[in-house]
Structures
1.
Amino acid sequence: MRFRHPDGSTVHLAYCTNVHPAEDLDGVVEQLRLYCEPVRRRLGRDRLGIGLWLARDAARTLSADPAQLRRLRTALDTRGLEVVTLNGFPYQGFGAQEVKYRVYTPDWTDPERLEHTTHLARLLAALLPDDITDGSVSTLPLAWRTPFDAGRARAARRHLTALAQRLDAIQELTGRSVRIGLEPEPGCTVETTAQAIEALTGPGGPPLERIGVCLDTCHLATQFEDPHTAVDALTAAGVPVVKAQLSAALHAEDPARSDVREALAAFAEPRFLHQTRTRDPEGAVHGTDDLDQALAGGLGDTAPWRSHFHVPLHAPPEPPLTSTLPVLADALARLVGGPAPLTRHLEVETYTWQALPPELRPRTRDRLADGIAAELALARDLLTDLGLKELP
C-alpha cells in the first residue's frame, strides 16, 4: 500500500510474511497465493506491499538461479504484490515448534550473516518495483547479549562495514539503493535506541548512509522508551530510521493481581522468547528473558509489566491486559506526521498469531487473512489521520 505524504514523497505500508512458515522458494510462492493475495483482495486494493521474509534456503535458491528469481518476480506481479522491504532478521527455522534463542543465530560476528544479508540486498534490488529505487532490509541488532566481548564487537563492525561497501556496489551496478536497519530488541547487544546510536556512531562503526535502524514499536514499548525522545535522539545523531515495524506489546498494568497473572500465563508459550520488562520509580528498566521467568518470581511486580509478545494491532487482549498500541501511534506520528517523513518504509509485523492463547488463534487461512487485513486497515487509518493520502 502506498501513501502520499503532504511533502509529496511516497510512504510504503506492508505486512511482514514471517507470519507464514515457508522456508524454501516453493513455499514462498505458495504463500503469495494462499495468504498475500487474499489479504490484498480483502482490502480492496489492486496493489499490496509485503515485507518479504526469505529464509536461508529460499535466498540461496534465488541467488543461484536467475530463472527462479524471475519466477518469484512474476508471481508477485501476477498477484498484485510488491516488495520494497525484506525482513532479514530470522535466518531459518522461524516456523519451528521452538524458536527461542535460535532466532539470533547466526549473528553479526559470523561471516554467514554477512553473506546471507548480502544475498538479500541483491535480491531486493531485483525485486523492487520498476518505479521504486530504494529498498530496505531489517536485521538483528548485532547479537544476543551473551557472549559478546570487544573482539566479537570488532568482528561485527567489520562485517557491517563490508556490507556497506557491497551495498555501494549494488547501487553502482543496478541504480537501486538498499539500506540495512539494525532492529533493537530486548535482551540483545543492542536493545535500545541509545545503544543503537552508540553501536553505529562509535569508533569503527559502519557508514550511516547505508546502515541505520529498524524501529520496532513493540520492542520500543517493551523497553519503556518514549517514542519522541528515541526518534529525536536518532535524528540528532544522524542515524537514519531505515524502516519501522508497526507492532504492539503485551501490557499488564498491575502484575501483582492474581487475575492479571493468570491472564499473562496464557501468553507464556514455548515457541518464541517473550522478554518481559518493568520500570522502577527511578526510571531504570529491569527484566527477564521470558514471560514464564517473570511469572515465576524473576521480576518485581509493583509496577506495570510489558512483554515482547506481538499482539494483533486491531484486537488487544481482553481486560485485565491491554496492548501498547498508543506507543505505536505516538511513534508513527513522530516518524511520518511531521513536515517530512523520517522513514518511508512501514511494516506491520505480527508474527505470533499461532502463538496466541488457543481461543484467540485463527483456526483457518481465511481467519488469518481476515486478521492481517484488519491490522493493515488500522494502520491505514492511522496514516490517513496523520494527513497521508492512500494511493491507488
2.
Amino acid sequence: MSRRQTELSSFRNAMNGIVYALRTEPHMRMHLAATAIVFALAGVLELPRGDWLWLLAVSGVVWIAELVNTAIERAVDLASPERSELAKAAKDAAAGAVLVSAALAAIVGLLVLGPPLWERLFP
C-alpha cells in the first residue's frame, strides 16, 4: 500500500469514528446541534474574527472530549464486560472531561455572544 493510500485510509478511519459517534451517542448529536446554533448566531451577529476563533476552539475541545469519551467507553466495555469499579471510574472520568469542556464552551459562548446579542435585542 502506498503512503497516499495509507493516509487516505487513516483519514477514512477517522471520519468513520466521527460518524460512529454521531450515530451512537445522543450527546454527540446534541453537540453538533449546539455548534450549528452557535455558529449561525455568530454569523447573524457578524462577530469579528477573534471571537470566531474562541468559538471554534471551545467547540473543537468539546468535540474532541466527546470523541475521546466514546473511545474510552467502548474500550472499557471491551476490556471489562462485567461490572467493575475501575471500569466505572474510567468512564466517569471521561464523562467528566466532556462536562468540563462543555462548561468551558458555555462560559466562552456567553462571554463572546452575550454582549452583542444583548445589544441586538435591547438597543
